[in-house]
Design a protein that fits this description.
Blueprint: H1 2-16, H2 29-50, H3 52-55, E1 62-63, E2 65-70, E3 74-80, E4 84-89, E5 92-95, H4 107-113, E6 118-119, E7 122-123, E8 133-134, E9 160-165, E10 172-177, H5 183-190
Antiparallel strand pairs: 1-8, 2-3, 3-9, 4-5, 4-10, 6-7
Helix pairs in contact: 1-2
């Protein structure tokens, strides 16, 4: 349910942020894209939490996400979890995203600061990613707070946003995959299809 809800609402919500507007100066693309991606995922996660089936505990699902925005000079990628975006650039695979795994430095520290642990490379021995939409059982924070009063959660929806410079002379394609597809295989698929990408 979380994945379907996100897919239905993310495009309109990106437009509604007003960060990504026609005529946006190229120099502003990275910062405005980051702000838009972060706001949209935080807003969707907050909406999901209030859905009756989530509040009742009937639906405890979660979803990873990966989004890319292409402009004449940049590719901006935002990912939460371990869905991947791979760019095919001149026949070479370029990873646009990096997996959020519980055992990664920084991720593990946040999980442990929230009073949870990493076992079998999973959050509490169960959740395979350290960032996701939904998965609210891992976003409880009744007792643990950061300095300043903020809540420390063992799972976060906040995406990692990365930018890559591109040239208008390049032919680029992008493929979105799961963590079970290695970059070379994804790159090969990206070079033969445009169904999963935005081409300039």
């Amino acid at each position: 349910m979380v994945a379907q809800y996100t897919a239905r609402h993310v495009a309109q919500k990106l437009l509604d942020t007003k960060h990504l507007t026609p005529g946006l100066a190229e120099a502003e693309v990275p910062a405005k894209s980051k702000a838009a991606f972060e706001k949209v995922l935080m807003d969707i996660d907050a909406e999901l939490r209030k859905l009756p089936e989530v509040e009742s505990g009937q639906d405890q699902s979660g979803s990873t996400s990966v989004m890319t925005l292409f402009s004449p000079q940049f590719v901006v990628c935002a990912n939460t979890g371990d869905s991947r975006a791979v760019l095919c650039r001149g026949g070479e695979a370029v990873a646009l995203s990096h997996d959020h795994k519980p055992y990664n430095p920084g991720e593990k520290e946040r999980i442990e600061a929230a009073g949870s642990h990493v076992k079998f490379n999973r959050v509490n021995g169960d959740l395979a990613v350290s960032r996701a939409l939904g998965d609210f059982v891992y976003k409880r924070c009744e007792t643990v707070t950061e300095a300043g009063g903020g809540c420390v959660k063992c799972a976060s929806v906040l995406p990692m946003v990365a930018q890559h410079s591109v040239s208008s002379q390049e032919h680029l394609s992008c493929r979105v995959t799961g963590d079970d597809v290695p970059p070379p295989a994804a790159m090969d698929e990206a070079s033969h299809t445009s169904s999963f990408c935005i081409l300039r």
